[in-house]
């Protein structure tokens, strides 16, 4: 037995350490996803017996105007959230400077990251309050009246995304700060010898070394935008009149409040496919860029 262990320990030890994570991933992620897909083919209230309806839930989904409203809002979230990586990089470059008081500034930019999303939602709900919120005070300083952002169907989604961007930018800043602290001093020194500075140094020396960080930042930001839920739940509950709902919140509302778990699972399946297509496309672009190098 000991001889067999010695001969195979090069793969047995990694297997022993990886196996618990693989089992957990298989049960929590893979099996749950397959169960959700199976439920999407049924009419089910969460308690009684499931009734097979095939793809009827999907047919109804693509005839539902609220689904397309939620899908449009997800696109808005995705587009606006793509501001987080470049803004996070800009702030990281700023606070990474060796200037007196910059450590204090860095801690201020870091603050949103340690706040719960619920807390951020509550804070910005107060900020957007038309009569006595921070936005109302800013408008009143110029003799104007603040708009009721969370009550306007055309502006509410942009207002919520603006609130959600605050911690997301802080997250990207932390990623880029870690990347900036691991830059090659030799490459930077060589760039200075060649006369690179300012924008040229950033473009040709710094950014190429931050490609891995940028990949992580964009991927996590995109996933965060597509699965947005908590800020909407805290700030508007999908209102007014469903105008701020997204696919994740629509899935929750249909399943929990309308007792339509099959229909909610169908929304979850569509959201999963959208995430899969986006991440697959993004990975293919990254790998193609690596092959061209």
TrEMBL record:
- Name the keywords, alphabetized: Cell membrane, Membrane, Transmembrane, Transmembrane helix, Transport
Grouped into one coarse class, the protein's main location is membrane
| Single GO BP term | transmembrane transport
Q: Could you give one GO CC term from the UniProt record?
A: plasma membrane
Subcellular location as annotated: Cell membrane
This protein's membrane topology, according to the annotation, is: Multi-pass membrane protein
Q: Which top-level group of life is the source organism from?
A: Bacteria
Q: Which residues cross the membrane?
A: 12-34, 75-95, 107-128, 155-178, 213-235, 261-283
Give all residue intervals belonging to the ABC transmembrane type-1 domain. Answer: 70-284
Q: Which SUPFAM superfamilies match?
A: MetI-like (SSF161098)
Tell me the protein family, please. Belongs to the binding-protein-dependent transport system permease family.
**What protein name is recorded for this chain?**
Sugar ABC transporter permease
Q: Which organism is it from?
A: Pelagovum pacificum
């Amino acid at each position: 037995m000991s001889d067999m262990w010695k001969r195979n320990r090069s793969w047995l030890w990694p297997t022993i350490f990886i196996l618990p994570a693989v089992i957990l991933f298989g049960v929590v992620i893979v099996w749950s996803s397959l169960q959700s897909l199976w439920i999407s083919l049924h009419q089910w209230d969460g308690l009684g017996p499931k009734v097979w309806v095939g793809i009827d839930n999907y047919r109804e989904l693509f005839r539902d105007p609220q689904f397309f409203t939620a899908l449009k809002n997800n696109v808005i979230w995705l587009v606006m959230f793509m501001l987080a990586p470049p803004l996070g990089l800009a702030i990281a470059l700023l606070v990474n400077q060796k200037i007196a008081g910059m450590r204090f500034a860095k801690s201020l930019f870091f603050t949103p990251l340690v706040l719960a999303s619920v807390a951020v939602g509550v804070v910005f709900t107060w900020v957007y309050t038309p009569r006595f919120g921070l936005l109302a005070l800013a408008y009143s300083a110029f003799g104007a009246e603040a708009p009721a952002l969370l009550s306007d169907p055309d502006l509410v989604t942009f207002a919520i995304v603006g609130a959600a961007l605050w911690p997301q930018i802080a997250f990207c800043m932390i990623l880029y700060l870690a990347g900036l602290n691991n830059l090659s001093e030799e490459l930077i020194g060589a760039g200075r010898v060649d006369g690179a500075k300012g924008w040229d140094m950033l473009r040709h020396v710094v950014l190429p070394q931050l490609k891995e960080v940028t990949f992580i930042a964009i991927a996590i930001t995109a996933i965060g935008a597509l699965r947005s839920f908590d800020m909407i739940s805290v700030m508007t509950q999908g209102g007014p009149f469903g105008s701020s709902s997204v696919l994740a919140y629509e899935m929750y509302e249909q399943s929990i409040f309308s007792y339509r778990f099959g229909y909610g699972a169908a929304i979850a399946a569509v959201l999963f496919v959208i995430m899969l297509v986006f991440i697959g496309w993004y990975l293919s672009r990254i790998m193609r860029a690596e092959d061209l190098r």
